[in-house]
Each structure stands twice: as C-alpha cells, then as structure tokens.
C-alpha cells in the first residue's frame, strides 16, 4: 500500500482508539464511523483534527461520503497526494 494511505489510515485508527478509549485492534477499518458513535458534532471535530494533522484543507463532507477509515484514507491519499492504493 502507498505510504500516505498508511499514514492517514494509522492516524484515523489512533484517533478513534484514543477518542473512544478502545484498543487499536478494536477499530475495524471497514466499519462505518457511525458504528463508533460519531455524530455530526464529533464528525466535524474529527475533520478539523485531521485537517490540522494533514496541514491541508479537506471538505467535511468527505467524512460522510467516505464513512470508514479505509475509504476515507484511500480518498485523502488519492485526492491530496495523487496516490492510488493497490
């Protein structure tokens, strides 16, 4: 897998595990964010934290359009860095 995808994927897993006080292994990258209890307010916070970490502006709607760790990481790696996952 491409480097930026892995970085974003790992950051999202770490963020969710920290916010939800779960073990990293409990965060399944194919499960929807809503499964972890993210509501609209927490989704906006996630997007803001992610923008700060990436140093890039992202559309908050991307979190809704790509509602899993895996799909959001792939989308951001492609749209921000031009990477295509294998």
Notes on the structure:
With 86 residues, the protein is an all-alpha fold. The protein has a single domain (3-81), classed as Non-ribosomal Peptide Synthetase Peptidyl Carrier Protein, Chain A, CATH 1.10.1200. It is 59% helix and 0% strand. The chain has four helices and no strands. The protein has helices at 3-20, 40-54, 61-65, 69-81. Helix 1 (3-20) packs across helix 4. It is globular. The mean pLDDT is 93.
Form type = globular
Number of helices: 4
- SSE sequence, one letter per element: HHHH
Name of the CATH architecture = Orthogonal Bundle
Low-confidence runs: none
**First-to-last CA distance:** 6 Å
Whole-number total of structural domains: 1
What summary fits the major beta sheet?
Answer: none
Mean residue pLDDT: 93
Supply the CATH superfamily name: ACP-like
Under CATH at level 1, the class stands as: Mainly Alpha
| Rg for CA atoms | 12 Å
> Fraction of residues in helices?
55-70%
Strand proportion, as a percent range, falls in under 5%
Counting helices, strands and paired strands, the structural category is mainly alpha
CATH topology: Non-ribosomal Peptide Synthetase Peptidyl Carrier Protein, Chain A
How many strands appear in the DSSP assignment? 0
